[in-house]
Amino acid sequence: MNSLMEIANTYLPKEDIEKISKALGFAEYAHKGQLRKSGDPFIVHPVETARYLADLNCDTTTLVAALLHDVIEDCDVSYTQLEREFGRHVAELVDGVTKLNRLDINIAASSDDNSSNDLRINNAASLRKMLIAMSKDLRVILIKLSDRLHNMSTLSSLAEDRQIMISQETLEIYAPLAHRLGMWDVKWRLEDLAFRYIQPDSYKEIASLISRKRLEREKYINLVQDMLNSSLKESNIDAIVMGRAKHLYSIYKKIEAYEEQGKDFDDIHDLFALRVLVNSKVDCYTTLSIVHELWHPLSGQFDDYIANPKENMYQSLHTTVMGLNGMPLEVQIRTHEMHRLAEFGIASHWTYKEGKQSNEKYETKINWLRQLIDVQKGSSGPEEFLENIKTDIFQDQVYVYTPKGDIFELPVGSTPIDLAYRIHTEIGHRCIGAKVNGKLVPLDYKLTSGDSAEILTSKVARGPSLDWLNVHAGYIQTATAKERIKSWFRRQERSTSLNKGREMFQKDLKKFNIEESEQEVAKTLKFSSVEDFFAALGSGSITIQQVLSKLNDPLPLKINSLSSSAVRDLTSSVEVLGVGDLLTNLAKCCSPLPGDDIVGYITRAKGITVHQLGCENIQKEQDRERVVEVNWGKSKSYYPVRISIHSWDRVGLLRDLTAAVASEKINVNDVVSKNQNDGTAFVNLDIFISSIEQLSKIFAKIEEVQGIISVERI
């Protein structure tokens, strides 16, 4: 408490200190007698939450709300009482952070819902409430992130299952949110703390590796640091040059990426980098030229986030150079103000002044975040809302330019349609094509960072295509685009939607050989009538994939045309040179089992035979080019399915069909084709798949093949 008041006294006026003192006394009385799982008095938690925010020089309202953030939830203090004692703004912030209790959740849960399902929905509903409150006042999330930071630092006192659950939520929700708000200091702390509980062995291993290499790396960094300092002084640049350590979780992610490339920990040279802080933008670019004079810059490794700031307002120059002894060295250059913004993000804008001018400056810059959350307010339930937010806000991002020079930040995997809807809803509705980097591209083209994309639109309103909502067709990635497309279809005439839905049901579900009647499906999906079900399907409110998922199709039970003995347990599956699961045979001579050291032999007629590494037959094999590296794959069950394809007959049809199936790494067990007198052909494929969702994806691929009339499961 003394530490909190000392920090607040350094930047707040006396009258504001009195408000904080009043809130501190109120919180201490409200939490009197309450203990945390660690055994500490409960008041320690809100004080630590407020203390971190005071370190950021947050305003009085934020500090008061941080001290009181648990009193509604844990102390039976009402919203009205808080508003009377501390004002409407404080009460709203506390209410935004407060978790929902069970009675607040308005869901029609069935009687067989178990407690874990209730808890999941409870958590999703709480996060939904918090995010919507955040869109009104971002100080809600500042308090919540500080609250989570202290909870994570004291997580050891909880049961192991709670530690893992809270840590997983921290990695999926709070750390990405801190990143999107530019709060790097909070992000890396949360990630490292969560990593410690989710993967304790990897955490200890990386910590040990870092410790083992520390002296060597620090010697290197000190050397290049001195070199750069000398050059900057010669050019009269007032700068602070420091080593920048990567944090444990980011090193873990880098090791994962390096392992995919066949590299190990010793190949990672940028565990430490340099960061240079200067006084002005001009000094930033002068420093960049000095760095490039000292060391040769690596091609394609420069980013100018000063001229092109990220959406979270991050600004800096990034360059990677070939440093001493041929080791890559990453250098970040920024002003002191840019550094404060990079570390603390939006929190750096909430100063003690509480003036409108400082707030207005960043209001427009974070408006994109509010818009994304507002679009999702109409989601059907808290879990859907949370999944949509994860997709649009928390996923890794790419940066795309428009011809006007505007920069849009989109989730990885986004398409031109996603960009069109991010620019404006009407642009999305009128989208008919796109050019990327001056070339026409298909609408399912995956945008990458640095792309310049131009959306081509129709002159008349034509509306989106219902095919865009097919998740396996790959037309859209963002929940924003999906919600706006659904909204467009919801506004169409019910009769039109009803007819479309009936046609889709009869056409698409026939493919999957679903035997339930229209009435049974509507009842399973909890629609009051078949007409309501068709209208929802035709309007895009529910997709074919969601129907299949709800029906929970027992795939192997509905295959009568193939023997059930064809079901394969891929415990014996292997990965060949990292290309994934392939059809293989286990050698009878040595009968390898999962866990044995194995090697593959390419046969002339039966694919790859897997032997134990010490098998005599392999040792005697003369043709060593047919011996390949293999390893045991993950356990998975594959089921046989026969699909019938009706198509216009043409040269190359079988090639294109098998290529479409092979692109999804699916094995074809048998192919039968039959030409018709009308110029068409029927092709039956026997394939092995792992789920109904995978079958749906295969159908989408096959339908893209030229000349396809229909495809169905038989």
What do you see in this structure?
- It contains 28 helices and 21 strands.
- It is of the alpha+beta class.
- The chain has six domains: 2-198, Hypothetical protein af1432, CATH 1.10.3210.10; 211-346, Beta Polymerase, domain 2 (2-Layer Sandwich), CATH 3.30.460; 367-489, Beta-grasp domain (Ubiquitin-like (UB roll), Roll), CATH 3.10.20.30; 492-553, no CATH class; 574-632, no CATH class; 637-713, ACT domain (Alpha-Beta Plaits), CATH 3.30.70.260.
- The strands form six sheets. It has a five-stranded mixed beta sheet with strand order 1-2-5-4-3. Strands 11, 18, 19, 20 and 21 form a five-stranded antiparallel beta sheet that branches. The protein has a four-stranded mixed beta sheet with strand order 13-15-14-16, with no helix packed on it.
- A hairpin with a 2-residue loop joins strand 8 (431-436) and strand 9.
- It starts with a helix and ends with a strand.
- Residues 100-115, 350-359 and 553-572 have low confidence and may be disordered.
Keywords, separated by commas or semicolons:
Beta Polymerase, domain 2, 47% helix, 714 residues, Hypothetical protein af1432, alpha+beta, 28 helices, globular, five-stranded mixed beta sheet, Ubiquitin-like (UB roll), 17% strand, five-stranded antiparallel beta sheet, single chain
CATH topology of the largest domain: Hypothetical protein af1432
Strand order, sheet with most strands: 1-2-5-4-3
Number of helices: 28
SS elements, strand count: 21
The helicity comes to 40-55%
CATH architectural name of the largest domain: Orthogonal Bundle
Tally of individual domains: 6
The level 1 CATH classification of the largest domain is: Mainly Alpha
* Major beta sheet summary: 5 strands, mixed
Rg calculated over all Cα atoms: 30 Å
Could you tell me the strand content as a percent range? Answer: 15-25%
Q: Briefly note the structural class of the backbone.
A: alpha+beta
